[in-house]
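The freezer alarm interrupted the setup, so I double-checked each line after restarting. Inputs confirmed:
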Amino acid sequence: MLATFFMVICIVPQDVAMPAAPTAGTLGAWSTAIEPDEVEAAFRAIPWRNELAPAIEEAKALGRPILLWTMNGHPLGCT
Amino acid sequence: MPVAAEAYQLYPEDPSHLARVANDPAHRFFRRYGESMPPEDWHAQGTKQGIYLIGPDGEYLEGRRAASSASEMLPRFERAVERWQQLRKRLRYANKPVPPRGQPTPPDCDDAKMLLRVSLRDLPGDAPGDVVRWRPGAFDDANWATFGQWAWNQDWFAIDDPRRLVPSGSEEQAADAEFARRLCAEVFVDRVRGQAASWTPAQVRSASLRMRRVRSVGALHTIEYHGEADLADGERGVRVRCFGRGEFDSASARFRSFELVGLGLRRGAHPANQRAQMIGPSPIGFSLRLHVAAEGKRGARR
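Predicted 3D structure, all chains:
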């Protein structure tokens, strides 16, 4: 007679605590932490234009080339 | 039109949409350039996401569809500069300096009365100092998937009337419910690693924003904000608790400063937000800050 063993593996999701609510005392630190710093936001130093058609006209007027960076989503590499 | 939308409008993948833009000058400009690229760099049959270096009259300098590797793109940029130097001399392009601009905002936000820049990233620890930041050489940038280790994103939230964030008196009062729900639905979205649609009204389980003047000096009023939000679509959701502070000038009816942070938990995955391997729940942080355009530049007007 074969004994049938039922092996049950219970995967219990690890509880993840809700972060403490921000307060007047922590607001500045959290803002600074969440926002990109100068290194992360270095791309903002470039004088980007936000529409291509006017940029084409501007490029022609200035006699300058265009760098078009276009992405369906966040330009830092994810789609 | 935002460049992201323009990429689709500029060279749509669908043949019927492509026919629609056939005579659009920007499309014709981009198409002429694209079809002069090496075929392996131009994604003829699909998305035109990529990095393109184009002369003033659409001349090919360099370019790559779906470009994302710095090590791949740097040599291309260098070749583009060399080609540009030759081109501009041959065609006598003026090569005038490019006028500086303030930080770019989406075109549909340029005329917003009040514009908030939203930043968001994962919170690996309990303290602000625990966040992980990208640094040159610190990550395997050639491996596209590693961006999740340091990812952050930004978004924008436009407000038609700044007075929506101003209590009428000194007592705490709730912000307009519809406004609070819209803010939460559009801002508290897990886009740290990719795209996700804003929450629909039905997916806003709860959203509240309370405000109170804590100090007034002449026409300048300091206002504090507390709020909570619970947003969900089945197994995917975000819960946050917020605190913020703003300084409102009642003489000009504009905010001089505004800062609000939401800390909470995200869970689940959207088809395009790169969370399939990170169902969670896990901590996430959002920061909203008043964006003020430089004088004379496009952006939220003073």
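Quick read of the result. The mean pLDDT of chain A is 81.
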